[in-house]
Amino acid sequence: MEKQNDIAVLAANREKTIVRVSATGIVTNLFLVAFKAFVGLVSNSIAVILDAVNNLSDALSSVITIVGAKLGAKQPDKKHPLGYGRIEYLSSMIVAALVLYAGITSLVESVKKIIHPETADYTAVSLIIISVAIVVKLILGMYVKKQGTKVNSGALSASGSDALFDAILSSSVLASAIIFLVWGISLEAYVGVVIAGFIIKAGIEMMIETVNDIIGKRTDREELKHIKQLICAEPEVRGAYDLILFNYGPNKNYASVHLELPDTMTVDEVDHITRQIQAKVYLETGVILTGVGVYSYNTSDDESAKIRNAVQKTVMEHDWALQMHGFYVDTETKAMRFDVVISFDIDRNEAVQMITREIEQLYPDYTLQIVPDIDA
Q: Which portions of the chain are predicted below pLDDT 50?
């Protein structure tokens, strides 16, 4: 109960952090929009105006981030028993769409200015405002990105990265203004195209990352390794296999796994160790093991050990066979079963048929049950 309360407190603090940081971003960006729009209109600079539009999209992004955090923090109910955490991924996608739209719009307007150029008129005040805006964006970007990493918020991290991009792009606007004042060469429309290109690139990358989160991407290898180490630290566990994580929003991970245990354990003993492992993994990682399956392995039969070694040697001769586990053989009933992790380089059915033929040649009297596992 105490651990559940801790998790609830962490979730509440996470939501508050996202809202606070996003609100800071909204206020800051609105001030920058006002200043840059003023400078852009007075100096007739398309690059500065587009920079202001970009800041406006950032402010809207922060609003959407707040809405996503609020909705994602809703408690599970009958309709959504695993909670609403994935709403944050949808809010991240909307943010990416806004950034992409701002980039495309900026590109169109910049190209128009290249075709129909207009002379800009910068002043010392406008250059100072742009310089201050660059410093503000750098500070805001580093702050937002740091907080996003701290609370595992994709939307916040994306907003922070976008703010850092803005600082770089605003620097290019400042550079073009200085070049115009010193040498009389107008590059601002071309700078606008460069700005638009960076905005579009950022929007596409944000969209791809969010889509991967929604579809389900490969879990970090180090995280899987850590969980398996926790499980295999139990003396009775010979191996942990088929570990798959299911993500239902930031910091909301569930998992299933198969344990390889000796065939001498009773159901009561298996129940005890699985509950013990579930508690340990949850306390150490926050991952909830919702499903724990069991493989049994032979403990007292020398003939079974010889068969296992022969089968494993045959299976692992194939490059696409990444691992064999869950092996069990009953020499009395002539039954054999095991799982094989198969790479994506070969058709799974074809691989199983190939292994079946080879094992049947070695042990024609045995019935086989071969389960193909994916390389997750």
A: 1-7
